[in-house]
Amino acid sequence: MNEPTKILLDESELPRRWYNVLADLPSPPPPVLHPGTLQPVGPDDLAPLFPMDLILQEVATDRYVDIPADVLDVYKLWRPSPLYRAHRLEKALGTPAKIFYKYEGVSPAGSHKPNTAVPQAYYNAAAGIRRLTTETGAGQWGTALAFACSQYGLDCEVWQVRASYDQKPYRKIMIETFGGVIHPSPSDLTAAGRAVLAAHPDSPGSLGIAISEAVEVAAQNPDTNYALGSVLNHVLLHQTVIGEEAIAQFAKVGLAPDVIVGCTGGGSNFGGLAFPFLREKLAGRMDVTIRAVEPASCPSLTKGVYAYDFGDTAGMTPLMKMHTLGHDFIPDPIHAGGLRYHGMSPLISHVYELGLIEAVSKTQRECFEAGVRFARTEGIVPAPEPTHALAACVEEALRCKETGEEKVILTALCGHGHLDLAAYGAYLAGDLVDHELSETEVASAVAALPKVPA
Amino acid sequence: MNEPTKILLDESELPRRWYNVLADLPSPPPPVLHPGTLQPVGPDDLAPLFPMDLILQEVATDRYVDIPADVLDVYKLWRPSPLYRAHRLEKALGTPAKIFYKYEGVSPAGSHKPNTAVPQAYYNAAAGIRRLTTETGAGQWGTALAFACSQYGLDCEVWQVRASYDQKPYRKIMIETFGGVIHPSPSDLTAAGRAVLAAHPDSPGSLGIAISEAVEVAAQNPDTNYALGSVLNHVLLHQTVIGEEAIAQFAKVGLAPDVIVGCTGGGSNFGGLAFPFLREKLAGRMDVTIRAVEPASCPSLTKGVYAYDFGDTAGMTPLMKMHTLGHDFIPDPIHAGGLRYHGMSPLISHVYELGLIEAVSKTQRECFEAGVRFARTEGIVPAPEPTHALAACVEEALRCKETGEEKVILTALCGHGHLDLAAYGAYLAGDLVDHELSETEVASAVAALPKVPA
Q: Does B48 fall in a domain?
């Protein structure tokens, strides 16, 4: 173990710009469409919800976007994040592979989410906005946005899916500790929420309903905007600090990854780590396999269709071409709440269609098995989402054990599981159920896709 | 903000030895006494519970003890820990003071506890021990020992106070995730537990009962030892990596603290940070005020007596001369569970008697107010224990604001509060009650101290 356990960067080595993968792709992704006109949306269509700086980033084709100094200052509270060499996991597996993990759990919210929450809050504050609204499921994104708003003096109002609100009181308290206001959704504060409550007074809520409530409040109040934690181009753009740092960290030890594995829900953590490496691959400077890992119960990339669909369940967003299981698909209540999304970032989808990345799916018990093994060797209890990446990492490392290959594997460890321990309790008690989505279930789920002429 | 936010050390700068403050004190502390004979205890008295390496460290007078290579390798999973400059807290307070905090929440258990859990597990494993037993209250120590045992292939068995076991299921799950076995105390697994249950079938338990159970199992099984997370000399010795790193980190920015504030329960986090600085002070190389902060409802240093007392409630341990409120004192159920100890480390007590450190007390609402302010500025939700240090830090920084002094303040931030969010919920809901222990209550509490001839 003479090689370092942690590869650290100094604050002076923090990336100064985000990377826009669009600049290097052989073709652009299909345009986002207005659901009424089926014409490409323009900046003005998005102006009621987002500040112009973010809208311009959403459609930018420049290779790099400078990170504002005020954002860098807040990033320094936890960035650059460490790149770890998993000496102890390697030893436990008996693999000749070199396993590395880029750990985003050091952030205030405990995940990669603040990487975009901070610039989103910054640009909104700079545009004179006073309040941000958003939805949250398990609560990672709501926590990140509440923290980011506290840094720029913005109010933050979060609609959390009622079922999670009731089941995960710690997330609610953490959001309040950062100064955010949180409502269970459906709420009686919006027309959308009241309509649901009128029909279903005991509704457990859904991400789709919570989005509708947050968007409604933002659209109706000029001093209020809306913020989204994944899927969109500007969100993935902000997350590329992860991959840029990792490249610099590998350079310090004279290595480069042969395989990258990361979990995909909406795609922001995966894209953030993978895109800078994809740039290196496209330029012929690296030969790296990039592999997305998704839950077998919500396999948008591996079993979904590539088609125009709504980003939300209620069908209020623009239409995006992406890998989807259908916008009214309700995934199993698996514990990796951040991966329970019917669709996939259009950018990730496009890159997958281009054959630039691979995708596999994993069932949750295999994932938690990898998570527990990781905790007992490396000392970090991972969030349920990155246990998917860890399961794929273990699989690759054991493959190397068979072949004798000394591959360098890079794993995206996008957050800790301190607020997800109930999931580990269920796994350790043997209470978890696996469900691999069948072709029949997929066919049924995608039947309701909106009709868009080719 | 051109000065760095985080001052990091490379792994190669990890301290290679622990510091023993005994070597530099003007007089030794009074001996620990056998409760039956009232004679000083010898190594053989401790051999049924501890391996000889730790017993020798407990009585060592050498200035330094080398850290074994296998311990350093595990330390590298999170050490050196970062020293932060609290730019944003300073700005929010409008103080000319420079505030720094040494953050131990980056460890696997989320606190400073693994600094000693790891070497304790290592020395026990090296001595051929197969299992460690311990007690835990809120759960920080049990988590740390379970993690440490997982690193050296030891079984770990934890007796957790029944009230905490029922109220804090996440801690139980985290201990199990690290491979530990956890029992609510009182349990029917020990004579001590069965005796309590016979008299009080619904007993909520206490730290004293849990210690009795863990000690009983260790004493009766040759392959099993017992481990303690604070109070003892060897525990504080292991924690000095905190202060040694901080000294090296301050040297990197050409500064030294004028004031150090840290919370004290059993004293291990405070001693770990403060003792290396005390060495510098005693040698005339630094002029630093060192201030212990304790809860107003459990003020052993500021209101207790300096006398021989038992370390546990049941009166089974050797007698230690320390600041105590009496071994049968039951502190209010404040949320800083780690500070609810009737006594104080004999080393800290001795140093306090020598006039080398100061002590103050704080009520819990002032502490949580400081904790919330810290979260909203610095992004870290502190554990309830270090909010005591933060309250004293804020007080000192506001004093500097009045006087215009640009003091350098160093705060011990010994852990995060991710598993203590219920306490923040109670604070934010206005449900917390303050209780400053009165002189009458103290007098009543210390009336039952054991009689030891001077």
A: no
Residue A365, burial from CB neighbour count under 10 angstroms (0-12, 13-18, 19+): middle
- If pLDDT is split at 50, 70 and 90, which confidence band does A454 have? low
Tokens for B333? 């159920």
Our measurement of the distance from residue A443's CA atom to the centroid of its chain's CA atoms, rounded to an integer in Å, reads 26
Do residues A286 and A220 both lie within one domain? Answer: no
What is the domain range of residue A258? 6-15+65-110+234-448
Distance of alpha carbon A73 from alpha carbon A80, whole angstroms: 12
- Residues of chain B in contact with residue A8, where contact means CB-CB under 8 angstroms, are 8, 10
Mutate to test the interface with A, among B103, B376, B416 (most CBs of A within 10 A): B376
pLDDT tens per residue, range A241-299: 999 999 999 999 999 999 999 999 999 999 999 999 999 999 999 999 999 999 999 99
Evaluate the omega torsion of the peptide bond into residue B186 and state whether it is cis, within 30 degrees of 0: yes
Q: pLDDT per residue over B3-54, tens digit each? A: 899 999 999 999 999 999 999 999 999 999 998 999 999 999 999 999 999 9
The CA distance from A139 to the nearest CA of chain B, in Å, is: 13
**CATH number where B204 lies:** 3.40.50.1100
Q: Which of A228, A257, A281 is the last residue of a domain?
A: A228
Give the integer Cα–Cα distance in Å for B364 and B294.
10
Among B144, B170, B190, residue whose Cα is nearest residue B338 = B144
Evaluate whether residue A336 is within a structural domain.
Answer: yes
Q: Domain check: are B273 and B356 in the same one?
A: yes
Q: Are residues A240 and A223 in the same domain?
A: no
- The owner of tokens 């103290």 is B442
Q: What is the pTM of this model?
A: 0.96
pLDDT of residue A160: 94
Asked whether residue B77 falls in the same domain as residue B171, the answer is no
Specify whether A427 is located in the same domain as A344: yes
- Taking alpha carbons only, the member of A290, A260, A279, A236 closest to residue A26 is A279
What residues in A contact B179, CB-CB < 8 Å?
A: 376
What ipTM is given for this predicted complex? Answer: 0.95
Sheet holding B181-185, edge to edge: B181-185, B155-161, B131-136, B224-226
Residue A281 distance to chain B (closest CA, Å): 30
Q: Distance between CA B35 and CA A389 in Å, rounded?
A: 55
Chains A and B: how many Cβ contacts under 8 Å?
A: 127
Chain A contact set for B390 (CB, 8 A) = none
What total of structural domains would you count in chain A?
2
Regarding whether B387 and B322 lie in a shared domain, the answer is yes
Confidence of residue B454 (pLDDT cuts 50, 70, 90): low
- Note whether B376 contacts A11, CB cutoff 8 Å: no
Bridge partner list, A131: A155, A224
pLDDT of residue A2: 63
Report, as an integer, the average pLDDT of B397-410. Answer: 98
Contact B177 A106 (CB under 8 A): no
CB–CB contact B178 A4 (8 Å)? no
Pick from A200-204, A291-295, B120-124, B371-375: least confident: A200-204
Widest pairwise Cα distance in chain A: 64
The pLDDT value recorded for residue A345 is 96
Answer yes or no: do A426 and A319 share one domain.
yes
Rounded to whole angstroms, the Cα distance separating B372 from B421 reads: 11
The mean-pLDDT minimum among A186-190, A312-316, B101-105, B344-348 falls in: A312-316
Residue B96 belongs to a domain? yes
Contact B11 A1 (CB under 8 A): no
**8 A C-beta contact, residue B404 and residue B95:** no
Of B228, B255, B288, which residue is a domain's last? B228
One domain for residues A436 and A298: yes
Residue A246 CB partners (closer than 8 Å, separation 6+): A83, A102, A273, A276, A277, A410
Residue A40 belongs to some domain of the structure: no
